[in-house]
Write a structure and sequence with these properties.
Rossmann fold; 343 residues; 12 helices; binds 6-O-phosphono-beta-D-fructofuranose; alpha/beta; 7-stranded mixed β-sheet; 4-stranded parallel β-sheet
Length: 343
């Protein structure tokens, strides 16, 4: 049995733990494991590397992906489907393991519909894939964002300032919500729960009246309704390879507006790719390892067109179709808990 493994989309702490687990389990089961370089593009380019015990030694704690990644969309290319089928056949892959987020799972589903044997492993720091309680990478991102809030706290307090931390989260505010709760944020602005800028300002003013001369706000990059309220048109934004607008920078508009409406000195920090880099937490290493082992078992059991997932304490598998049927947005009762502290 020859299995091709690829990582696709934005990178994520824990990817190497998955690759290592697939390789170790595959070796144990007598399979040949081939790494496809740079996501789906590697299939088109026929860029492969053999994965063996030596090539995955010492990588469980390493961030990024030893295979490289990209947001290359095979079905966006001329004759993409034919080329893909041809390349899979030419490489003699019996199955593919695609490690990726929502965009990559859409591609995996299309491959499945073409008759390519594929299983999915869910990955994204955004934690917005449906059907799995957590994706690996999320815990690491939350820890990094929480550390940043802790650091912003001391400088905010010293200077009597409002500090805004902007974190990733294209459609879902999971990172903002979890790090905001853990870091003791005074307001959390997420895509799922529309807030008015005046409401945020009210929180800051009421804190000021109570003698709290500083405040911390966490905002998810995808809270685009802020732009609508300010009537800012960001139409001409650059796009990524999947054709999605590149986000980032919304906190500058928010900071400006807060200063205008309250007179409070306000500063912005955009955490950006720092939250995707570096060593994964123990949680993400364990989750990635369990997903990797389970994915090989799924191939053995011919559970194609399915994605492994964490449900409660168990690793299970669900149809990829279900995983991409909708986005997993934040649970509003967790937001309600966070709101207790917005005063
Ligand atoms: O992986 C998803 C994500 O973290 C989004 O939250 C963010 O908008 C995007 O990646 C940015 O990634 P890149 O800069 O690689 O396009």
């Amino acid at each position: 049995m020859k299995i091709g493994v690829l990582t696709s989309g934005g990178d994520c702490p824990g990817l190497n733990a998955v690759i290592r687990a697939i390789t170790r389990k595959g070796d144990q089961d007598g399979y040949e494991i081939i790494g496809i370089l740079n996501g789906w593009k590697g299939l088109f380019d026929e860029s492969y590397m053999k994965l063996d015990l030596k090539s995955v030694a010492g990588i469980v704690n390493r961030g990024g992906t030893i295979l490289g990644t990209s947001r290359f969309g095979p079905f966006q290319q001329d004759n993409g489907a034919e080329i893909l089928q041809h390349k899979v056949a030419r490489a003699e892959f019996d199955a593919l393991i695609a490690i990726g987020g929502e965009g990559s799972m859409h591609i995996a589903q299309q491959c499945h519909e073409l008759g390519i044997n594929v299983v999915g492993v869910p990955k994204t720091i955004d934690n917005d894939l449906n059907g799995t309680d957590y994706t690996f990478g999320f815990d690491t991102a939350v820890q990094i964002a929480t550390d940043a809030i802790d650091r912003l706290h001391t400088t905010a307090e010293s200077h009597h300032r409002v500090m805004i931390l902007e974190v990733m989260g294209r459609h879902a505010g999971w990172i903002a919500l979890y790090s905001g709760i853990a870091g003791g944020a005074d307001a959390i602005v997420i895509p799922e729960k529309k807030v008015k800028i005046d409401d945020v300002c009210e929180v800051l003013k009421s804190r000021y009246k109570r003698g709290k001369l500083f405040s911390i706000i966490v905002v998810a990059e995808g809270a685009e309704y802020l732009l609508e309220e300010l009537q800012i048109d960001e139409e001409g934004r650059k796009k990524d390879e999947f054709g999605r607008a590149r986000l980032g920078g919304i906190s500058y508009y928010l900071a400006n507006e807060i200063e205008k409406r309250t007179g409070f000195d306000t500063r912005t920090t955009i955490l950006g790719h720092v939250q995707r880099g570096g060593v994964p937490t123990a949680f993400d290493r364990v989750l990635g390892t369990r997903f990797g082992i389970y994915a090989v078992e799924m191939v053995t059991e011919k559970k194609f067109g399915r994605m492994c997932a964490l449900q409660g304490a168990d690793i299970v598998d669900i149809p990829i179709k279900k995983a991409i049927s909708k986005l997993k947005t934040v649970e509003l009762d967790i937001y309600k808990a966070a709101k207790v502290f917005f005063k």
